[in-house]
Input
Amino acid sequence: MAKFKEYVQNQAMLLPPSLEEKVSEHHLGRYISGVVDELDLRGVEGGYSEMGCHAYHPRILVKVLLYGYRVGIRSSRRL
Output
């Protein structure tokens, strides 16, 4: 049984056709995504239960949090 909601970063979308086409090669978000992809998050992932509704994957949550802090958004509601 899965602990997390499905996380597919390169998933095709109706509009825009792909995030790859809309986010420039040198965008801050790509840099943060690459750094977080290299982190070992097994300790965080292990703390999640398989019971209840699937959670968002910790990797995407860390990416959103770091990007938000970098661009000056510190409110969890605004994130």
Observations:
- The helical segments are 19-22, 28-37, 42-45, 58-70.
- The two ends are 29 Å apart (CA to CA).
